[in-house]
Amino acid sequence: METLVCMLLLVLQAVAAGPLRVDDGQDSGGVDAISHPLALVQRLEALLLQGNGSDVTLRVVTPDADEVKLIPAHALVLSLQSPVFEELLLGRNGSTLTLGENADCTAVFDKFIRYLYCGDVLLRLNQATPLHQLASKYQVAALRQGLTRYMTQNLARDSPSGHVAGWYEYAVQAGDAVLSDSCLRYLAWNLSSVMQSAEWAGLSSQLLMLLLQRSDLVLHSEMELFAALEAWIAHNRPDGLTVENTLRAVRYAMMPPRELFRLQTQSAVLARYQESVRDLLYMSYQFHSASPVHMAKFFDVNCSLFVPRNYLAPLWGSSWVINNPTRDDRSTSFQTQLGPSGHDAAKRVTWNVLFSPRWLPLSMRPMYSETGAMQPTRAEGGWPRIIITPATSSADFAGVSFQKTVLVLARQQGRLLVKHVYNFHQSTEENGDFLAEADLYRRSSDYLLDGSLLLHVVVKPLYQNLIATKN
User: Fold this and answer.
1) CB atoms within 10 A of CB 266
2) How many whole angstroms separate alpha carbon 459 and alpha carbon 352?
3) Phi, psi (degrees; rounded to nearest 5) at 82
4) Element (H, E) at 190
5) Which has the higher per-residue pLDDT, 20 or 136?
6) What pLDDT is stored for residue 36 in this prediction?
């Protein structure tokens, strides 16, 4: 150990020579600073590669594998970086420390050890999980946090069979709530593209059920979801109970009656399991044939079957491309169906939408004195806001509550995806963080495509007499 300490001191002395950076002395009393972090990293990397002064050999063994990795290392470095290594090294017998790892972790173990020496790591997409496993096992917090950040930033990366679902399953097992929440949110908000990818067929039944139970799924229609579910069932051939549970999570009431008729006559899966969803189909037909308020007098229909998801079909909202979003206020209008019930199928609501790029709340606007002189403002700039209001009022609105949802699209890894989902009643001011992270002034911003901000506005009608508390 003394030899190793001396060697590390020599490394520090070796990098001490070099250019001198002198402070101007106004704030720090003329303190001089010498900084060579890159040179120090290079010296430590050389120490690892050459094995000079190593006092422990890591013997990495994979069960049921013939290959064994031997890595010369330095106990002081390992102990300083990992409390687990510190404990293992204190209890070792001899100069060799045997470690059991799975094949994937063994394959990247050299990269893991290099991080302990140099503080950086080069990795491919498929190496993130085993490195995260090693960082968790040996309690290297900085590496674990860095890998979580790397994975959340690369959810949209192309991979042959997809990786987000696998990362989610791993994150749940590893107890990484940040990563699991990010994966689940990505899958839910970009479900249409996920359902068309190779990743869809590989989803576990548990993950599939979690998605099906969500109201914030972004997809074209409930029919699109049913078609993808049929494909998943055909590919995975799950047991009957799993099929019944997934079919019962479909919101049939969000399908027009003509589509329900077509499903019952053409879907092989529904024909086989129709008895398990007969009550849902029956309630859906009643939902479309009678007034929702009248239906609620006789049936307990306060359930997710009658709650819309974030549908992209024109009857539920409209896309909106805002050119030069920092320039001035913009407005648009569109129409939606009054409600998902067939009783309201012919009724339309016209919506007016206003986008303000630099809106300020009243409390932060310029104040005027009695003489009319403007007082200094409490804040400058302002932030974006969207207001959505009906163009006219109608007696048909009685019993209907409209939740507005704005989907914000952004580029990530060269792909366009839903980055944020904001829910509100009338204005995004209710959220408080609308586009707070977006840089709309830089043309190369991920939130801009050719200088334009891409949004999709969804109006979700909820029958108040049917749905008491749903988000």
Assistant:
1) 9
2) 12
3) -140, 120
4) none
5) 136
6) 61
**Per mean pLDDT, which range of 52-61, 217-226, 333-342, 454-463 is the poorest?**
52-61
CA atoms within 13 A on the CB side of 414: 2
What's the CA angle centered on 162, arms 161 and 164, to 5 degrees? 155
pLDDT in tens, 105-141: 999 999 999 999 888 899 999 999 999 999 999 999 9
- Beta strands 348-359; 383-390: pairing state: antiparallel
DSSP code string of 300-355: ---SGGG---EE-SGGGEEEEEEESTTSS-EEEEEEEES-SSGGGTT-EEEEEEEE
What pTM was computed for the model?
0.85
Q: What's the pLDDT tens digit per position in 21-80?
A: 434 445 555 677 766 677 667 777 776 777 677 889 999 999 888 889 999 999 988 999
Nearest to 463 by CA among 286, 362, 340, 333: 340
Q: What Rg value do the Cα atoms of the chain yield, rounded? A: 30
* CA distances for 454 relative to 193, 413, 422, 450, angstroms: 17, 17, 14, 10
* Residues 208, 161: Cα–Cα separation, whole Å: 17
Q: Which residues pair with 22 in a beta bridge?
A: 32
* Residue range 161-174: mean pLDDT, rounded: 95
Q: Residue 184: CB partners within 8 Å, gap ≥ 6?
A: 168, 210, 211
- Report which of 196, 164, 177, 190 is spatially closest to residue 408, judged by C-alpha positions: 190
Q: In percent, how much of the chain has pLDDT > 70?
A: 85
Q: Which amino acid is at 253?
A: A
β-strand partners of 57? 72, 96
Other beta carbons within 10 Å of 83: 13
Compute the distance between CA of residue 274 and CA of residue 261 in angstroms, rounded to an integer.
Answer: 12
Q: How far apart are CA 303 and CA 466, in angstroms?
A: 8
Amino acid at 456: H
From the list 420, 385, 403, the residue with the least C-alpha distance to 459 is 403
